[in-house]
Amino acid sequence: MTSMEAESVTTILCTSKQTRFNIGVPNYRELDIEGLSITVTSVASSKGGGSSKASKGKARSEGTEVLDNTTLRLKAGQRYALVGRNGSGKSTLLKAIAQKLIPGIPEETRVVILQQTDAGDVNTDVDPDQLASHPSAAGNRSVLEEVIERATARHEAQRELDGLTRYKDLSQAVESTNPFDAIRSLRRIRRERLQKDLFLKAKDAKLRSGARGMQARKALIAAEKTVTEFDAIYVQKDNEISPETLAKETSEAAELLADLQLQIEPSKIAEIEAHAKKLLTGLGFSESTMLKPVSSLSGGWRMRTALASALLQETDILILDEPTNFLDLLGILWLQRYLTTLGESADTPTLILVSHDRDFISLCTDLLILKAKGITYFHGDLPTYEEAQGEKKIYLTKMKEAQDKQKDHIQQTIQKNMREGKAKDDQNKIRQAKSRQKKLDDRWGLEVSAKGGRFKLNRDLVGYHLTSRTEIEIPQDERPVQFVLPEPPDLRFPGALISLDKTSFRYPRDAKSKTVPPLVLQDVTLSVHMGDRIGIVGLNGGGKSTLIKLLVGETKPTSGTLNLHPRVKIGYYSQHAVEKLQEIGVSDPDLTALELLSREMATSEKDEGRVRALLSSIGLSGRVVSDVPIRKLSGGQLVRLEMARILWTCPHCLILDEATTHLDYETVAAMREALRAWPGAVVVVSHDRWFVHGVVEGHVDDQGSDLSDEEEESLGGE
């Protein structure tokens, strides 16, 4: 058993069972880790007073257990969809894989991860050079330069750019008139490599325990000694270097220069740049946008930049956490096809995908279901899994009922024989009854194997067990996700809630520009009544947000009329709602969800129960609302909090702009059904095809998109 502690904003403790056999050359695109347990604790818990053993015990006891003695198994080249409810630990598992905190993941395995921006301090505990996510402003670097920089500097196997930098330095030193310049450059490169090797050995020593741990610590001590000895050489002055050393290291510098020259392939750099342009174009970047500084982009476009960087890198395991959050429909369709075509390459990376879009994850070949502190594997898509689980539950329920009925009959027969044997003092009958009772207790249970065949003890129940059969366990459904919408109040007199009549809109002309901006919306006529379900779809920049702002009254039309019902109440969910809540959490670090709602609604203490009831109706309850600061809430919890803020007034019309972002698929399904049954009006903007079809058209099937292959092909080609 091995373990590791990752000191950061939160502490991730990972343990796993290691094999003691030599497995030869591993396939770095595969993982097969048994006995995996992951616990998450806070820094305050892990750094409490007392001895180190006491603090570790305290951290474990106060931590949140994500996985408990489960198996993590990934096959090379497969596409996995990781599904689970918000808070089940999906992001923690992905972070543990990406940072190689799990004992058993080879250090040589190349892992690229794109993480969603769930909090304002995303990945503050992760070395930014090791992640493709959460891109920060890259100074004056253009989008194209940023993508290439992140992709080429990511792995040791892709040293072209790094080698180019060293080559320029070293070549100048070799050609210099000062003979010591070449030695200085050579020693600087060697020192960097020794420092990196020391870091890897220190990490390995933390990961290992027992005999392996002793060997790892010996290797660490040897590496520390080597670094210390080399540091003494590194700081030597020119007059302290002997002529023999000068001649020897000058020759070695020339050899290293030749080696680095082989790594520099202009054609390779050109190929990378062409591939980067192709990816950026598919994600919606124009030629002019590619040349803009990254610092001038919005958060959504920066995430697209990070996604392009992740896709550009050569990797063994590619992890994408909610990559569709900032993509329009065309971008989603393009990404879906691109990830599918990755399987056509020779060294196809293993893909782990997290997404609330059920149509999008249909590209995956397998499911990883994170549930009850374990991982369940299923070959197929999500609708097939749900159907199979339903059939399995019915099958096992019928089997258990039949066995219980048969067991009751046998039990009655045994008791009857026991009574008769005692009455007649028939010892043979008594022994026979006891023997049957023993067999009944030992051999009663599941009579089929995991594949549905006949049960064999030496194959299907290996090891020590209390009985010779496993008990029939009927899969238990998780507690259904709660999402209840309040009833809208009576309007007293009928009429349209919102009406647009031949409405047009253009943004004001810039003072420096003489040209009149084009119309964003032209002659739009729309009426929204109680009970209406309206879906607004289109490309990014097509005017969806502008139309929404007109409906909620944030902007006024350039021409035409906009009329609102005199008594209408509108609940508006902005696509930037999560970011705004994160800013509120940063400005007031101790503010909780309960305090925020109480402050905004001017409630007294006696109304706290009403606030809690509202939060509970959409899935926020207990200490999460009163003790956990907003800045520490997950993306899904922030979405629920924003929904509570707009539902407090009991609106007649809900206008939801990308409200499914950050939610798990079960919560999206619960929201879809709640909106469908709600008597008020709903206007929804979303790129989640399954969600829009369900809310607007009332589709209840879970078989994916209703778009035909021809329709999707035409969309993808636009």
Automatic annotation (TrEMBL):
Signal peptide: none annotated. InterPro entries: AAA+_ATPase, ABC_tran_Xtn, ABC_transporter-like_ATP-bd, ABC_transporter-like_CS, ABCF, P-loop_NTPase. GO terms for molecular function: ATP binding; ATP hydrolysis activity. Residues 38-398, 505-712 form the ABC transporter domain. PROSITE patterns: ABC_TRANSPORTER_1, ABC_TRANSPORTER_2. PANTHER family: ATP-BINDING TRANSPORT PROTEIN-RELATED, ATPASE, PUTATIVE (AFU_ORTHOLOGUE AFUA_1G16440)-RELATED. This is ABC transporter domain-containing protein. It comes from Xylaria bambusicola. The lineage of its organism: Eukaryota, Fungi, Dikarya, Ascomycota, Pezizomycotina.
